[in-house]
Amino acid sequence: MVRFLILLSIFSFIQSAFSFDCSLKSHEGIGQKVLTSLEKNTISCKGQKVHLSFDDGPFQNSTPQILNELKMRNVMASFFVTSKNLELKPESGKIVSETLNSGHLISSHGHEHRAHDIRLDSAGRDVEAPLTQSQREEDIKKSVSYLNNVTNNEFNKQSLKLFRFPYGRGAMPSENELRVMEERGMMTFQGHSFIERLKEYRRKSPALHTLSGFGFSHLGWNHDSGDSALPYSLPDEDKIIEYVKTNLFNLCKASTPRVALFHDTKMINTVAVPLIVDIGQCLGLKFVSAQDMVKEPTISSGGVFIQKEDLAKGVVENVLEGLSGAEDSGVVNPACTNPETLQCWSEYTKRWYNDCEGDRSICLGGRWYSRQDEIIKKNCQLNDS
Length: 385
Prior knowledge:
It is a single chain. The chain has two domains: about 25-310, Glycoside hydrolase/deacetylase (TIM Barrel), CATH 3.20.20; about 330-380, no CATH class. The protein has helices at about 1-20, 30-40, 65-75, 85-90, 95-100, 135-150, 175-185, 195-205, 205-215, 235-255, 270-285, 290-295, 295-300, 310-320, 375-380, and strands spanning about 50-55, 80, 105-110, 120, 125-130, 160-165, 215-220, 225, 260-265, 285, 305, 345, 350-355, 360-365, 365-370. The N and C termini lie far apart (about 85 Å). The strands form five sheets. Strands 1, 2, 3, 8, 9 and 10 form a six-stranded parallel β-sheet that branches. α6 (about 135-150) runs parallel beside α9 (about 205-215). Helices cover about 40% and strands about 15% of the residues. The chain is globular, with a radius of gyration of 24 Å. It is of the alpha/beta class.
């Protein structure tokens, strides 16, 4: 009898999820196969909020198709543009402009798509050299310039100005990468757990601090679609079905709102994303804009969204907290008689600099910062005329 009631309960649960007509606005053939497959599983999304975000575009073969599918469903997404694409193919600028005019958020993914901080592979080997501070600044400047040029300066006028680091490096290092940073003398951490050390990293990250100087907030992700492992061309039908199902299950089982990472350079998303939206809405998913998603408390408290005001505060706190520990990092002039006066060493000019001295980078508290950093603007009277 108990077993019968359990089976009846499961059956009722499945029926409640699929008792209404799930309208598929496109790709109905594959969509029906997904629905048939899902009928064998208990899945309900219970009003879970999702924001769709796309990296690495625009790509002429896929981005316009994705835009058309989102328009059919009145879903607003954010597109993190790699502006090198606009340099290589100027005609791609029209796609960016159309994306913005359609109500989506145009955001920066940098210019060169290079890691802004240390990036290791699974074996702990360096994948590429991280950008230097001057390279970071130049990369962001180029990105902003290209995005403003193709949107008639509308990029800077958006209500939300977002940046996402390529590979997440600059805001989302792995536990092993934090350990290697400390071993190489790049940073020191007091925390013991990964979460504690990650919070410290985000307070100290030069890459994040650089964003604040350009007026950016940072948006990471807490749902990875897994499309990075897939080919750029459209895979077979079975692969699409499995991809759609996996994303739906992972989105629906989450207990907090999800910022979902996709790539508009992958053809699979021209088919899969529309099905994820259609079927997800049938199951209870609510697809929201970036402007609505960043208002969710857990998105900020979990570090997925770091607003520019907090980035600026982090710089201030880092300088104040880091003064006493700077001597151990080797940035103090050994000839300095005042232990509270920290200087910065330049390998290029082979000399020490006092607070508020420098050219493209400015010394303060024994550390180099971008001229645009809020801490420099608040503490140094620079003549930039």
